């Protein structure tokens, strides 16, 4: 039985037991929820304890990898610029569209209160508090260790960026040793996350039972709204990438759509950009007319550094959690989320799906002062959105390649 299936079984079993107990005996259901709630929180705490070291390590390693790629030639530098522009545009679009589309969904006050009772009320918006001057002052931490202790993600990521860029200015040998140390730290945290995810069925079972006892079937309907909102967000970003290929890559809509279809089918079926790489190379060279020297450099770089839907996912997930809790995110908070999402996405490429969902969404959720407990339930249904996310990533890789190839011909 696959890990995803095990988690889904945990979700379904927990929800069924929670609803059945609530119908049969509310008193017994309340006792069961009080017993299992700490188990769910322990599981989430075990995941959260890896976030700070993992994020710092990923950002430092991501800066080093980006720097190495930029040093490999003009084509590589153009590709990096295209990647950053597309990631930033995707994050900006998601920061605007995700809260907007969720505003059309029915918000159940009873569900909100029940979830707050089951998980806890989110802290008052720390990331959006204070004046604009206070916000700018808080970007650079006066004490990086204090920022880590407080899980203040934006200043912590800024500190990691400083460390990453500073490493590019020291002796190559020492730089390689330091980067290797951070890579080792990231790999170690991923191992711990995998251990914690091994017991995810139990954690998800406890969370689902607790929430269904307090909120009932509405928890499951809320998950349905998540699937709808997240998949539609990915599809809109994917469609926008066709315009990128047309306007920036000199392709016609019909030619680009027909050419990339085989790679998209592989992407949807495998849910892996790496597994789709051979098909993307063949598509770019023979169907889209991109030069071999461009595709052989840009597409491996894209698979290694560029995941178009990652910032979209982080912001979409955070906006959804804010929606179910009735929290209205300010423009400042969404700007922070977009900036964090772009930076974290550069270092998160290559992480396994479930590890990526938990470890890379948590920093953005925490930066917005939102509870992370719903991530445990979203993990159980992530297989469906992940297929659409991979579709967007592969489409983004090929669209970016056409833009770089066109600039190389000029």
Mind explaining what this structure looks like?
With 410 residues, the chain is mainly α. The protein has one domain: Proton glutamate symport protein (Orthogonal Bundle). 82% of the residues lie in helices and 0% in strands. It starts with a helix and ends with a helix. About 2% of the residues have low confidence.
Strands, helices and their partners?
Elements: H1 3-24, H2 26-48, H3 51-70, H4 74-102, H5 109-119, H6 132-139, H7 144-149, H8 153-167, H9 172-198, H10 200-215, H11 218-247, H12 253-270, H13 273-287, H14 292-305, H15 309-324, H16 331-348, H17 353-367, H18 374-380, H19 383-409
Helix pairs in contact: 1-2, 1-10, 2-10, 3-8, 3-9, 3-16, 3-17, 4-11, 4-14, 4-15, 4-16, 4-19, 5-10, 11-15, 11-19, 12-13, 12-19, 13-14, 13-19, 14-19, 15-16, 15-17, 16-17
